[in-house]
Write a structure and sequence with these properties.
Elements (H helix, E strand, L loop, with lengths): L1 H5 L13 H8 L2 H31 L3 H38 L3 H36 L4 H16 L1 H16 L4 H23 L9 H24 L14 H74 L3 H28 L1 H5 L6 H14 L3 H17 L3 H25 L2 H24 L6
């Protein structure tokens, strides 16, 4: 395998001209290096995920319609964050890491400009699409009456500021591609620190500040994201990054370096979000808005796993990408499998705890009996399969670093077919949501097992 692996990159540069960080990525001990890079990312991704939890808690005080409306918007907003940070963002980090690993500093610098162009255009596109088609989309997902109105009020604000999310993740991905994990983490923590008091203030009002309802939560997200974007932009534009912004002619080859990974990764992200969105529609058909509120609150924990695994995933992109660029394929594979094992242990622990004590999670957001019943049923069945989701997702990030996303795409499709197709069939045959949730769990197991088996078998190097 090592001979095939070396064909994926060209040993790039002598140790004398490497930055210390690049040298660490190429030669540091695997587990200590991975944990050193992962801990700030993991903490900050948990902080970023807490944004949704904080808002959900405050919005739950507005009633079940508001909670259901947020559940309708949340998959789309998470999809945007996953696309900008994990999919296209992973393409940016992978391209920068491979350029630095191969000693192509000029290309690494030029990639910064290309990343900003791509993410800026996509951010504006998201705003246009959701403002135009949001009402039809949320109605299709089961929104009606008060829940549909709440969804639109929240959606118009958060997607109106979509370009800030995309630019923030462009800057963060450039930094992560160089192995710099702390600064993106600090910037997001600052944004969250601003959001924590701002969210209840704008939702419920205080003194001269009027109560904006669920739209106030959206404004808090936009303001916090804007602050993070400003900090990350300053870091990259002021030259404090190994890859620096330089004005240069736009080149299709560099767009291809990013989009060759990012576009395929985006399909995988769409698969994940489509799975949640379509099963939300199935749940709405079976139980109505109260059941949607319970299912949406339960799946919010599943979405929390994504930023948790991203804490490991971002270092995996940088480590695997740099080693592939330098022709060290065997080391890249060892890094990927090690990261997958760590992700499995962490996410499985979360899933087992959620299955054992579902009310501890659901009770944070409401006490409606139907909401609690549906959410608890979901967590008891699907929670024990969370480890396989973490395993598959970490290997998806590692595959971004390798620039090999065919198998993650196929594994995601298998999950989608099992979860949505199996869930719909189970509901049609039994009328029971428990069997729908069983199909979701089976899809997660298949996702992790298939991806781990093929990557361990050398699929990157064939």
């Amino acid at each position: 395998m090592s001979g095939a692996a070396t064909g994926l990159g060209v040993p790039a540069m002598g140790a004398a001209v490497m930055s210390p960080r690049t040298r660490m990525l190429l030669h540091g001990r695997v587990v200590p290096t991975l944990l050193r890079l992962a801990w700030p990312n993991t903490l900050v991704m948990l902080a970023q995920a807490s944004v949704g939890l904080i808002e959900t808690w405050w919005v739950s005080h507005l009633g079940t319609d508001a909670l259901a409306g947020m559940a309708l918007v949340f998959p789309g907003f998470m999809m945007m964050q996953m696309l900008s940070g994990g999919a296209v963002g992973g393409g940016i980090a992978s391209a920068v890491a491979r350029a630095l690993g191969a000693g192509r500093q000029e290309d690494a610098d030029a990639l910064v400009l290309h990343a900003l162009v791509i993410n800026g255009v996509l951010g504006l596109g998201f705003t246009a699409l959701l403002l135009a088609f949001g009402p039809a989309l949320y109605a299709l997902l089961g929104g009606e009456g008060g829940s549909l109105q709440a969804a639109l009020q929240y959606s118009d604000v958060v997607f109106g500021g979509a370009v800030l999310v995309w630019l923030s993740n462009a800057f963060a991905s450039v930094l992560r591609g160089t192995g710099a994990m702390l600064l993106p983490s600090v910037s997001i923590v600052i944004g969250v620190a601003v959001l924590v008091p701002l969210s209840p203030l704008l939702i419920h009002g205080y003194g001269p500040v009027p109560a904006l309802g669920i739209a106030g939560g959206g404004w808090a997200v936009v303001i916090g994201t804007g602050l993070s974007t400003a900090i990350l932009g300053w870091a990259v534009l002021s030259g404090r990054s190994i890859a620096r912004l330089r004005w240069a002619r736009l080149r299709w080859a560099l767009f291809r370096d990013i989009l060759g990974v990012g576009a395929v990764a985006s399909v995988s992200t769409l698969q994940t979000t489509l799975t949640i969105a379509l099963t939300t529609a199935v749940v709405a058909r079976a139980g109505g808005p109260d059941a949607v509120a319970g299912y949406g609150t339960g799946t919010r924990l599943e979405y929390l796993l994504i930023p948790l695994v991203f804490g490991l995933g971002a270092p995996l992109v940088a480590l695997v990408g740099t080693n592939i660029g330098a022709g060290q394929g065997a080391r890249a594979l060892r890094i990927a499998l090690t990261g997958g094992a760590l992700a499995f242990l962490v996410t499985e622990a979360v899933g087992l705890a959620a299955a054992a004590w579902p009310e501890a999670w659901l009770g944070l957001f409401g006490h409606d009996p139907r909401m609690l019943e549906t959410g608890a049923a979901y967590l008891r069945v699907v929670g024990p399969a969370y480890g396989f989701f973490g395993l598959g997702l970490s290997l998806y990030f590692a595959s971004q670093g390798a620039g090999k996303l065919g198998w993650p795409l196929l594994a995601g499709l298998i999950r989608l077919v099992i979860a949505v197709g199996g869930g719909w069939l189970a509901l049609h045959l039994t009328g029971s949501l428990a069997w729908v949730f069983a199909a979701l769990a089976a899809g997660l197991v298949a996702y992790g097992v298939v991806l781990a088996a093929v990557i361990r078998g050398g699929a990157w190097f064939r």
